[in-house]
Amino acid sequence: MNGTSLVGYAILRANFDSGRPNYLDNFLEFAVDAVRISHPVPAAPEAVSSRIEDKFGITIPTLVARNILRRAQRLGRLDEAGNGAFVCSKSEMSTGRSVSADFDKFIRQENQVADRLIDYADASGLAARGTLNREQAAALIGAYMDSHALPLLRNAVQGATPPRRLDPGENYLVSCFVAEAHESDDDLFNRLVEIAKGATLAAVLRMDVSSLQASLKSLTIYFDAPLLIDLLGHHGETAQSASRDLLALARGLGARTAAFSHTVREAKSILAAAQAQLRTGQRVSETFRAAVYFLEGGMSPSDVEIAIQRFDDELDGLGIEEREKPDTYHAYGLDESLLQDNIRKAIHYVNEAALRYDVDSVSAVHRLRQGRPGETLERARTIFVTSNHDLVMAANRSREDAHEYPLALLESTLASLLWVRSPTLADSLPAKKVAATAWAGMQPDPARWSQYLAEVERLEERGSLSRDDAVLLRLSSESKRELMREANGEPDQFAAVPPSKLVELVKESLAEPLREQVKALQAEAQAVADASTSSIAAAQEDATSERETNRVLRERLEAAEAASRSTQVEDRERRVRLWRKAGRDVNRAMIIALWVVGVLTLALGLFPVIAPNIQMELPAPWAAILTIGGGAVIVVGLLTQVVGGSLREWLSALQKPLALWLHTRRLDKLGMTVGHEVEVTAEPELAAAPTS
Q1: How sure is the predictor about 124, in pLDDT bands with cuts at 50, 70 and 90?
Q2: Total Cβ atoms within 10 A of residue 452
Q3: Relative to the CA of 276, which of 123, 256, 313, 560 has its CA 20 to 30 Å away?
Q4: Range with the poorest average pLDDT among 343-352, 528-537, 573-582, 630-639
Q5: 92, 3, 1, 75: which is closest to 39 by C-alpha?
Q6: Above 50 in pLDDT, residue 3?
């Protein structure tokens, strides 16, 4: 791999975007350019392959180069010169346009990306200043994209050339660079995505395939248990989105999707284990993704139980068919003892049942192929897809036929293979993959991280580290990020970062956004203060003027209030006078009425005694009046003896209601209403009156 691979990837991606009718046509321009360089000297496929790798950093197997040259001959761009060598045709030399014409443009683009990596390495301190030149930076980016284009697949394909392996520090540097671009520089990140697309296209070619147009209708893809959990969202939204993109690609290309029955049981057992940890309150390991997801989501054991009960229906809704593993072991059986040994060496299983599940899955895929190896994806018939890197390595080491297509693939590898076949089905997949690869490259190796957490636990037990700090290191994503940053991505340097120091780094990292917010608020407040300073003098003048205005208004208001109080006093005095007058008038009327009633009563009472004969000669009405009057006198006399009191006392109870009625009528005529004068003014007394 050399620096010019970025140029080759860019040109390859441009060819791919132009919609060439055949996959190999994307590499046609490279082959014709290699022949043009030596024209009129014939160029053999071996020389063509070598020139393409030297100039564009793209490795094309000799057999594939021969197929590409023959296709160029059929298109009239090359002529065969004997012994399998080729020269350019006359029409190509006269009218053809060499891909080298765009070489300088792509070189400038490559240099810009390489320079950005150098600047980032210097600014971040991940590489000593001045130690990384442009050629080395371009080579790092090319190697990074190449190694992650189709991870593990070329190791599993017979004769494939393995990519350059970056050391942990280099991988971490480029991962951080890509992640930074993803977060803050869309233009740079889009350039990196285009490089990744070209790397993927070139990686597929190294598998020695001749076409990617064959149908996948005969292919069945079996999902591993963690991927089933991803699909249902129990590992978080990010994992669900990536797995569903893969599912959509597979189904869009006609492939069938399924899961073995034992894999479904395994997935449910994983959820059940997470449920048990929630129920018992055990410490949740941060590597137990499902348990961490449920815990952080605030879910209860009953919520997990519902997820388990719905598992089958939700898989069916996604179009994933549950199938039993085949029983044709003796006819097409794989050496399961070898397979189990290989897997056990590669993976440390806490649960022995998980080992059995993986052996059953890989062996079942081999048996479903019925002894037909199939050297391409469409001819493989079945494939097991997983997110377990070590399982893929162990499974493919156990194949009986070296030419057999891999039994297992990483989900990212399969997604890339499917995307090359039909990029329009998942246009955002390369960008998601680049971002996910960068994020993964910034995480510590799981085994080394577990060792580090074991040291954290020992310190906690000895009391050298508080429980809160230990929890922070175990569960905070910042702890991984800070450890990798402090160790420059080198696992061997983890021991040089004591947990106590890491705690401080994590706290500092968590506090940094808050400090930035405080700074922003302070800057905003200062800006407001600066803006207000210029208007203080004017505001003071306005305040002085306003104070003078307020003084004048206050004086006017005080005068108005004094006048109002005077008016209110006069009004109240007038009301009191009217109320007292009403009382006197009622009192006077009641006294007169009492005297009149008393005189009449006395007269009526004495009249029958003084002149009894006269009463007999009076007309009937008058006689009745005299009789009634006499009876009234007798009744009043009896009431005063029985009930007590006097007629004067009885009438005095009517004084205030009558006075209020009279007072109200007089106020109505004056347009006034009754106020508090009725309550605060004493009732007028009745003058002496005759008692009955």
Answers
A1: confident
A2: 22
A3: 313
A4: 630-639
A5: 92
A6: no
Q: What CA–CA distance (Å, rounded) separates 449 from 453? A: 6
Per-residue pLDDT band for 154 (boundaries 50, 70, 90) equals very low
β partners of residue 223: 385
Amino acid at 485: R
Tokens representing 546 are 């306003």
* Spatial separation of the C-alpha atoms in residues 471 and 457, rounded to whole Å: 10
DSSP state of 682: P
- pLDDT tens-digit series, residues 512-542: 877 778 788 888 888 777 776 766 777 777 7
Q: Chain centroid to CA 476: how far?
A: 18
Burial class (CB in 10 A: 0-12, 13-18, 19+), 136: middle
Which phi-psi region, left, alpha or beta, contains residue 265 (left: φ > 0; alpha: ψ -120 to 50)? alpha
- Are 323 and 303 in contact, with CB atoms under 8 Å apart? no
CA distances from 471 to 277, 283, 407, 446 (A): 16, 10, 40, 18
Q: Is the pLDDT of residue 614 over 70?
A: no
Of the candidates 441, 447, 434, 451, the residue with the CA atom closest to the CA atom of residue 484: 441
pLDDT tens figures, 198-256: 777 777 766 545 456 667 889 999 999 999 999 999 998 888 888 888 898 899 889 99
The Cα–Cα gap between 343 and 341 comes to 5
Calculate mean pLDDT across residues 408-436.
75
Largest alpha-carbon pair distance within the chain?
A: 177
Q: What gap in Å lies between CA 177 and CA 128, rounded to an integer?
A: 15
On whether the CB atoms of residues 37 and 51 are closer than 8 A, the answer is: yes
354/377 Cα distance (integer angstroms): 27
Cα(486)–Cα(468) distance, rounded to whole angstroms? 22
Domain ranges of the chain: 5-99, 215-426, 446-533, 577-680
Taking the CA atoms of the chain, what radius of gyration do you get in angstroms? Answer: 51
Q: How far apart are CA 143 and CA 288, in angstroms?
A: 32
How much is the average pLDDT of 81-91?
Answer: 90
Helix, strand counts (H, E) of the chain: 32, 7
Helix (H) or strand (E) holding 279: helix 261-280
Distance from C-alpha of 121 to C-alpha of 111, rounded to nearest angstrom? 15
What's the whole-number average pLDDT of the chain? 80
For residue 310, CA distances in Å to 226, 301, 441 come to 16, 14, 34
Question: Cβ distance 41 to 85 under 8 Å?
Answer: no
**Helix/strand/coil (H, E, C) string of 521-576?**
HHHHHHHHHHHHHCCHHHHHHHHHHHHHHHHHHHHHHHHHHHHHHHHHHHHHHHHH
- In degrees, to the nearest 5, what angle opens at C-alpha 301 toward C-alphas 236 and 311? 55
Assigned token pair, 480 = 């991984």
Percentages of the chain per state (helix, strand, coil), in multiples of 5: 70, 5, 25
CB of 35 closer than 8 Å to CB of 68? no
Q: pTM for this structure?
A: 0.62
Beta bridge partners of 576: none
CATH T-level topology, domain 5-99: Arc Repressor Mutant, subunit A (1.10.10)
Question: Among candidates 151, 159, 146, 244, which has minimal Cα distance to 197?
Answer: 146
Query: What is the rounded CA–CA span in Å between residue 80 and residue 500?
Result: 71
Q: Helix, strand or coil for residue 667?
A: helix
Q: What is the DSSP string of 365-413?
A: HHHHTTT---SSHHHH-EEEEES-HHHHHHHHHT-S-TTSPPSEEEHHH
| 41-55, 302-316, 521-535: range with highest mean pLDDT | 302-316
